[in-house]
Design a protein that fits this description.
single chain, 133 residues, mainly beta, Immunoglobulin-like, 3-stranded antiparallel sheet, elongated
Length: 133
């Protein structure tokens, strides 16, 4: 028995035997994982002192995924053009530049190799820069 929950691709083989010639055809189909990626351990939201110029946002996923960032909610994954850096596809980091006092919101979606999105529609970060007074 093959455990399909742990495999992302299943290869099927069909062979036909003939007197002189053996012919085999192989095809692969993508199987969805048992569950979409879950975003865990987000860091970076907070209140920062006036003069802070950069804040690193990070999120960890429970399985390999690609994460992207936007500054407004509700966009499809393909429209989020800011990509988190990730060497292992589990820990994702993005450094945002901050120039003015106030609160900025950033929205994140992560997608696995089977094109399944994070369970929560989006992960949200709030970054507040104090006004310096």
């Amino acid at each position: 028995m093959i455990d399909l929950t742990q495999r992302s691709v299943l290869t099927l083989m069909a062979c036909m035997g003939m007197l002189v010639l053996n012919a085999c055809a192989t095809s692969s189909i993508a199987l969805p994982r048992a569950k979409p990626p879950v975003a865990l351990n987000q860091a970076g939201s907070g209140i920062y002192p006036y003069g802070t110029r950069q804040v690193t946002l990070s999120v960890t996923t429970d399985q390999p995924a690609e994460c992207r960032l936007g500054n407004s909610p509700g966009h499809p994954f393909g429209a989020l053009y800011l990509r988190f850096a990730s060497e292992d596809r589990l820990l994702h980091e993005y450094t945002v530049s901050t120039y003015d006092a106030g609160t900025s919101q950033f929205f994140v979606q992560c997608r696995d190799d089977a094109n399944q999105l994070t369970l929560r529609e989006e992960v949200m970060f709030n970054v507040t820069i104090t006004d310096g007074q």
